[in-house]
Amino acid sequence: xxxxxxxxxxxxxxxxxxxxxxxxxxxxxxxxxxxxxxxxxxxxxxxxxxxxxxxxxxxxxxxxxxxxxx
Length: 70
Known about the structure:
The protein is of the alpha+beta class. It has a single domain, classed as Multidrug-efflux Transporter Regulator, Chain: A, Domain 2 (Orthogonal Bundle). 53% of the residues lie in helices and 16% in strands. It has helices at 8-15, 19-27, 44-52, 59-69, and strands at 5-7, 34-36, 39-43. A 3-stranded antiparallel sheet has the order 1-3-2. Helix 1 packs across helix 2. The longest helix is centred in the last third of the chain and has 11 residues, at 59-69. The radius of gyration is 12 Å and the shape is globular. The mean pLDDT is 85.
């Protein structure tokens, strides 16, 4: 059984980013997330779908593309 939600630290590792960078992107609405009281959780399926929707490029390139579009 796979995890349904990831901690920010786990999402950061998966994306190859720092936790601070992930939290910053969550705050700007660039990454899917859920709040549970004071915890911030990243839905594993939505993060995977986000990554899969970006064929032909690395996660870093995809994030750069998102940043350029803002």
